[in-house]
Amino acid sequence: DSSLPKPLKIRLDVTDPSIVKLRTADSDTAGTRVRVLGRVHRLRSQKDVIFLVLSDGYGYLQCVLTGDLIKTYDAMTLTLETSLAIHGEMHAVPPTKHAPNDRELHADFFTVIGCAPGDMEAINTRVAPNADPQTLYDNRHLVLRGETSSSVMKVRAATLRAFRSTFEANRILEVTPPAMVQTQVEGGSTLFAFDYYGETAYLTQSSQLYLETCLPSLGDVFCICPSFRAERSLTRRHLSEYTHIEAELDFITFQDLLDHLESVICNVIDLVTADSQVARYIKDLNPNFQPPARPFKRMKYSEAIDWLREHNIPNEDGNPHEFGDDIAEAAERKMTDILNEPIFLTYFPADLKAFYMKKDPEDRRVTESVDVLMPGVGEIVGASMRMDNWDELMEAYKKEDMNPAPYYWYTDQRKYGTSPHGGYGLGLERFLAWLCGRYTVRECCLYPRFTGRCTP
Ligand code: 4AD
């Protein structure tokens, strides 16, 4: 029937012609009759005209309602987030005016699909930008409809795609280790325990130990799974549940591990920014973002201690840093922000690091370990070579007061053909906080979990 509106020409990829999405920016649509579906994202009512920006999760389209259309009850009571079907004709935006993708829809008909409240219940009242943070977290489901939050989620999806394709290109296989475990990886203090059919079990802190068991049968492996940490402090970079990107590589040296990390991070940034739409989100979110230059700065822990002393940045007790001190979050971030480039911080003292880390054969006080630090966030990756000697591992359990029994399957890797191997864990939300220039990792996941919050 030629009298029916034609679907928007820019959506030839969609099989059902009755549903029109706003995904493609195509300015060559003037004169096309279309039918679009979405929600009112912005609304400006004047005496003779209503301008609204429709959003459908794919894009934005300015729609112009005039004449008899705006004299209807539905038009006069229109509110933000109301879902609509609008029919009309595409036009270029007049040269002095602005609209998404420089196009607009001149409506000749519309129907309301689902109303949304106005006044005190209106979305922009409930999630006003100056609302207190708790109110915004309570209303995260509505905050996500905003341009900032939805852009971060789109960059997040692109980043996950980029990691997967980088791993694929390096022939690193994806596996899915369990989230319910009976071992700790990163210390007992941040374990979430629960009752597992009468036994104590934990939510995993890291899938590393399981990845190590895959090397003999599957070669290099990675996983992208949630990790859980019962962090007690409320900081802007700690979540209780976060998305952990972990990989484990067999028959490598520490130098190989460092080179691999640098190349994965740079490749992911290249892939993410090669998509012009995603690059635009990043530009809007973080106008000053620059892809990191290679090679990354490499700095030993001992050099960092000297650097902190020289720059009068004290340790947590307010004293000058000494070899053996933990470099706390505040000091680490100050250093990273001053140096203002990615840093590979290497060779941490064994006493500061997890039981499984391999000692440096040249200096057995320190480990073959590296934290990757990024400006604005600090540590985004923790990595190391793994202790591959059976006796040494048994010693390490003893030193940490860990019962080796539940780790028999991990220890067995040193018994049945051990190998020099290493790997890393990258916190996706921290990576995104850096890439998208967000103040906190809480803005970089769908529904953040942190101390005291497990809803919505
Ligand atoms: O340094 P972490 O604790 O290292 C491990 O878990 C290793 N077992 C990983 C491995 O080698 N396979 O954690 C790795 C990364 C950190 O650098 C950080 O980016 C992130 O995980 N991370 C957190 N992100 C958000 N909230 C938290 N509470 C986090 N704890 C760690």
Explained architecture:
It is a single chain. This protein is an alpha+beta fold and 456 residues long. The protein has two domains: 9-121, OB fold (Dihydrolipoamide Acetyltransferase, E2P), CATH 2.40.50.140; 140-444, BirA Bifunctional Protein, domain 2, CATH 3.30.930. Helix content is 29%, strand content 26%. It has 13 helices and 18 strands. The chain has helices spanning 73-76, 123-126, 133-138, 140-143, 147-169, 208-218, 254-274, 276-285, 301-310, 329-339, 390-399, 408-415, 428-435, and strands at 33-45, 49-55, 60-66, 83-92, 103-114, 173-174, 180-181, 192-196, 199-203, 221-228, 241-250, 297-300, 343-346, 359-360, 363-367, 369-374, 378-385, 421-427. The chain has an eight-stranded mixed sheet with strand order 6-10-11-18-17-16-13-12, with helices on both faces. A five-stranded mixed β-barrel has the order 1-2-3-5-4. Helix 5 (147-169) packs across helix 7 (254-274) and helix 5 (147-169) packs across helix 8. The longest helix has 23 residues, at 147-169. 4-amino-1,4-dioxobutan-2-aminium adenosine-5'-monophosphate binds at residues 185-186, 206, 208, 229, 231, 238-239, 242, 244, 246, 379-383, 423-427, 429-430, 441.
